[in-house]
Amino acid sequence: MKLNVKNMLLVARSEYIKWLMNPRMVMLLVILVPIRELIILPMLRAAQEMNQPLNIFESCIAAVNSGWIILLMPLAYIVLISSFPTADDNMMFYISRMGRKNWILGEMLFQVLSAATYCLVMMSATLVQTANHSFLANGWSIPVTDYDKVFGEAATVRMDVIVPPNLYYQMSPYKAFFLSYFLMFLFLLLCSMIFLVGCLFSRKLLFFFLLMIQIAVGCALKAAGTGMMWFFPISHSVLRAHYRSYFRQYIFSPWLSMGVFFVLLVCLAAISYRRANKVNLDMIGGHILS
């Protein structure tokens, strides 16, 4: 069957609606709790103590550069997509009507939509909680840049841990915001594409645990600060890991990290596209986590 954009969109829309209606979406609330406790409340406390507003994007930037949050966000996302591609009694008829190539391209489009939606929800939920105490401008706030210096040992918040200085010394908040979320989006998309390849090779459970392990090990190596961390994709998704503390010199260029993600994504997309005609559809789908 020839490629048909309409069929691709129908596949993507069907999967996307099922994903949005998945009861596991409640896991988003689980992620928002540590973000509020570890990021939002301390930043609001610091702003109140200094009687100065925050930049509206600073809490969002802090969330995707925080050690615990960058571990939890991809783990939760993988769980949310663990039952996709979906398989039901009508799957054989559905794919034969759409065409295998259209089906796999529609699944790839769904991966893009799900990763983008996940990032957008996390970003919006974080932003809303600090909006009333924030300003909109392309400049860092006084609580972020000066709180630690003003209060010293009497500080109740470690602002340099929440928003690392190597970000506000190196770039504007707009740039930090864009790069932080785009890198995280690319990493989530990479995880979903790896998982899709695992499904097509009937190794869904194996690839699920491999993704979990590489995220955990990558975070551990990043926390240790060893150069080995760059062999794990999750390190490329953390903007703060790319810059030195004060000097405007890359440890690893974020633009090069984007290139790494794009190359891996193209390779995985090519593998999935070629595999679509050979895959045993009876081995696709099923729920890893019941």
Provide a concise account of the structure shown:
The chain has helices at residues 5-20, 27-50, 58-63, 67-80, 91-98, 100-130, 142-151, 159-162, 165-168, 173-200, 204-224, 233-236, 254-275, and strands at 54-55, 134-135. With 290 residues, it is an all-alpha fold. It is elongated.
Helix content: 55-70%
Question: How does the overall form come out from the CA principal axes?
Answer: elongated
User: Number of helix segments?
Assistant: 13
User: Could you describe the largest sheet, including whether it forms a barrel?
Assistant: 2 strands, parallel
Total number of β-strand segments? 2
Q: Main sheet: which strands, in order across? A: 1-2
Structural class: mainly alpha
Measured distance between first and last alpha carbons: 35 Å
- Uncertain residue segments: none
Strand content: under 5%
Q: Over the alpha carbons, how many angstroms does the gyration radius reach?
A: 21 Å
Mean pLDDT over all positions: 86
Q: Would you list the SSEs in sequence order as H and E?
A: HHEHHHHEHHHHHHH
